UniProtKB/TrEMBL annotation, chains A, B:
Organism the protein comes from: Microbacterium deminutum
Family annotation (PROSITE patterns): HTH_TETR_2
Keywords linked to the UniProt accession: DNA-binding, Transcription, Transcription regulation
DNA-binding feature ranges: 40-59
InterPro entries: Homeodomain-like_sf, HTH-type_TetR-like_transc_reg, HTH_TetR
PANTHER family cross-referenced by the UniProt entry: HTH-TYPE TRANSCRIPTIONAL REGULATOR BETI (PTHR30055:SF234), HTH-TYPE TRANSCRIPTIONAL REGULATOR RUTR (PTHR30055)
HTH tetR-type domain sequence ranges: 17-77
Record-given protein name: TetR/AcrR family transcriptional regulator
Gene3D superfamilies, per the entry: Tetracycline Repressor, domain 2
Coiled coil: none
Length: 204, 204
DNA sequence: GGTGAATTTGGCCATGTGTCCAGAATCTTC
DNA sequence: GAAGATTCTGGACACATGGCCAAATTCACC
């Protein structure tokens, strides 16, 4: 049973969390522009018309803010492939739609992915937001694995690689194309589509 | 024809470059410990018993120093597989020796590789040492491609992947195992050996 | 509308940053 | 061993950083 007080507290917490999400969302683009290390709280303030104080009111510090921001973005990002896995009716369709989606996110959100790799690397040096990064890594590995197993299922076969390897290979492909794309190679958009398709097809 | 003056100048340049290499080498370990962003010139000075002034005498700035340091390490690193490619007499031997070598460098020099990925990512945000990073990336892709083509040759076949894809996949595998290893997973050493072997075997 | 809580502001602090340089120390050359 | 070039030192500089907080503002509720 919930008392009136409990409901009020719940509501207050929800409101607080909602504002946290809002602020983290605003901050995200600012941090993505120049990377974690080169973006100070003041840069975020200036770009978002927020005071630096408010960031410390809603977050315990820079690490907390960045962890919240990247979690919001990337956890949503990992779910974009759910409908593809759920509704594809043939292996070829699955491969095709996966390739289109991953190519689109490379094209439209390269800054965010650059930030993701930036933060994942930073977390190898210090543990400020390491747990969040590890959780996201798991989500991404799950996503890749869901695609691989669905693909195998549609082919009536079993995957020839394990979950971790599948993630490592897709991630390597994506990072490579992201770097190429950021360095100005527009063909990277085609590359990620074709190469991830080939990789998926080879994973049976 | 070289005059005495020219020879003297050459010698002076050589000496200057030799000292640069020496200093960059000393600095390398210090930078690798906490990453590029979190390591100041003063940290390097303190850890290496060098004055901060001398760093600016031999280098134009922090970027120059770090570019020199990572180039020295990584360009040598990429050549370690040359003898393996040159002297392996069967595809299986090549795969085996490659796996042992890559696993050993993961075990013994994880800090350096962590720094490499750190710097490669930083170079996606600013161009301070971007050219050096791109040059190293080329070296690494060449190295992987040399292994893949040699493997195909020993099998009497042709590679089924292109140079860039081969590098992307091996790099993805290595980065994944590096992350796992740094997070405390000792099995990563076995994983990189077995998975890179499997990948190489599949690249025909 | 008044009262207390929640929210927001903008500036302060100590510390750390890359860069630079005047002068000291060392080496070279005659 | 004198003179001049090279190498090296350690501190100064201007600025950026994350964290913090007293005071101002806005809000919710009786």
């Amino acid at each position: 049973m919930t008392t009136a007080t409990e409901r009020a507290e719940r509501s207050a917490t929800d409101k607080f969390d909602a504002r946290r999400r809002e602020l983290a969302d605003s901050a995200l683009a600012a941090i993505a522009e120049h990377g974690f290390a080169r973006t100070g709280l003041r840069d975020i303030s200036a770009r978002t018309d927020l005071s630096t104080g408010i960031l410390h009111y809603y977050f315990t510090g820079k690490d907390d803010l960045i962890a919240q921001a990247i979690w919001q973005y990337k956890s949503e990002c990992a779910r974009r492939y759910d409908p593809i896995v759920a509704t594809s009716t043939s292996a070829d369709e699955l491969i095709e739609r996966f390739g289109v989606e991953i190519s689109a996110t490379l094209r439209d959100e390269s800054d965010m992915h650059r930030l993701w790799y930036d933060l994942r690397n930073q977390s190898l040096f210090e543990d400020g937001f390491r747990d969040t990064i590890i959780a996201i890594d798991e989500l991404l590995a799950d996503m890749v694995w869901a695609v691989v197993t669905k693909h195998a299922e549609l082919r009536g076969a079993s995957p020839t690689v394990d979950r971790e390897t599948a993630y490592a290979l897709v991630d390597g492909l994506f990072l490579n194309c992201l770097i190429g794309y950021l360095r100005g190679d527009l063909e990277a958009l085609d590359h990620i589509r074709k190469r991830s398709a080939a990789l998926l097809a080879a994973s049976i």
